[in-house]
């Protein structure tokens, strides 16, 4: 990491870099992959026939005593082959984060592993087991395909929530908070901020417990974990699902020292969440994260305009129109 702070960047140049980011382009068009299905699907009548909305971090299936949460992540092939241990660790970690992002607690994970290399498979499994132990979520099964031409990995997770956080419930007037763990470092040449692998297990678990506590105490209704699209891609998905817009002060976003702003805005932090919080609860929510030595700041306000505007110093511009 550079020893000196990066030079300042102008808003238009920053926006151009963000729009050309592969992670942001993928997240911004993610609905195209399933838009032919519709906005929701119906469960079989034997399970109550309830509609499940599409587009959240997890599928949320209502039960008599809360919600069953189900999610899955596939890993980029190049990442799996270049860093198999860390890819295995990350596959479990991101699934666990998806459950907590919706106010739930993870129960178990399964995996699908295609073996192009036995040596890499061992590293992947070692990484998955390390994350399973760190987060206290067992690996209970899966599928292994031998003789594959390539090594690939996907992991699924099951969890439960008493009360949901969704990406459909941000309201005009809400404050947008960004909460991140800055006690980490960039992983190799990837846009990945690793604040997990060296942290104590009890710290990882207790930090994540903030999210279901906020949901159950009614302090927050809408949230999403910051994924491979980074802060900006995650903002776009949350605002689009809630049919709202926002003005974001980019200088208010918690950021590690000596990392360029455009890289940080498209970076995947191992602990990172965007929350849409009623204004009267914003400071109370912020203090929950600060009390655990996490960084959390209000970075903007939700509005009804269906656009995403950025402010950087004295500049202001329109970045996205829904």
Summary of the model, kept short:
The chain has 322 residues and is of the alpha+beta class. It has helices at residues 11-19, 22-28, 77-82, 84-101, 118-135, 201-208, 210-216, 230-242, 261-265, 282-290, and strands at 40-42, 51-53, 59-63, 66-74, 104-114, 139-145, 152-161, 175-180, 185-186, 192-194, 222-225, 245-249, 268-269, 272-277, 295-303, 307-312, 315-321. Helices cover 31% and strands 30% of the residues.
Principal-axis shape: globular
Measured between the Cα atoms of the first and last residue, the distance is 36 Å
Strand segment count: 17
CATH class of the largest domain: Alpha Beta
Number of domains: 2
Radius of gyration: 19 Å
| Helical residue percent band | 25-40%
**CATH topology (fold) name of the largest domain:** Phosphoribosyl-aminoimidazole Synthetase, Chain A, domain 2
The helix tally amounts to 10
Task: Indicate the structural class.
Answer: alpha+beta
How is the biggest beta sheet arranged?
7 strands, mixed
Strand order of the largest sheet: 11-14-8-15-12-16-17
* Reported CATH architecture of the largest domain: Alpha-Beta Complex
CATH superfamily of the largest domain: PurM-like C-terminal domain
Give unreliable regions as ranges: none
**What portion of residues belong to β-strands?**
25-35%
Average pLDDT = 91
Following the backbone from N to C, one meets helices and strands in this order, namely HHEEEEHHEHEEEEEHHEHEHEEHEEE
Report on the structure:
The chain has 322 residues and is an alpha+beta fold. The protein folds into two domains: 11-29 and 166-321, Phosphoribosyl-aminoimidazole Synthetase, Chain A, domain 2 (Alpha-Beta Complex), CATH 3.90.650; 71-160, PurM-like, N-terminal domain (60s Ribosomal Protein L30, Chain: A, 2-Layer Sandwich), CATH 3.30.1330. Helices cover 31% and strands 30% of the residues. It is built from ten helices and 17 strands. The chain has helices spanning 11-19, 22-28, 77-82, 84-101, 118-135, 201-208, 210-216, 230-242, 261-265, 282-290; strands at 40-42, 51-53, 59-63, 66-74, 104-114, 139-145, 152-161, 175-180, 185-186, 192-194, 222-225, 245-249, 268-269, 272-277, 295-303, 307-312, 315-321. The protein has a seven-stranded mixed sheet with strand order 11-14-8-15-12-16-17, with helices on both faces. A five-stranded mixed sheet has the order 3-4-7-5-6. Strands 9-10-13 form a three-stranded mixed sheet, with no helix packed on it. β9 and β10 (192-194) form a beta hairpin. The protein is globular and about 55 Å long.
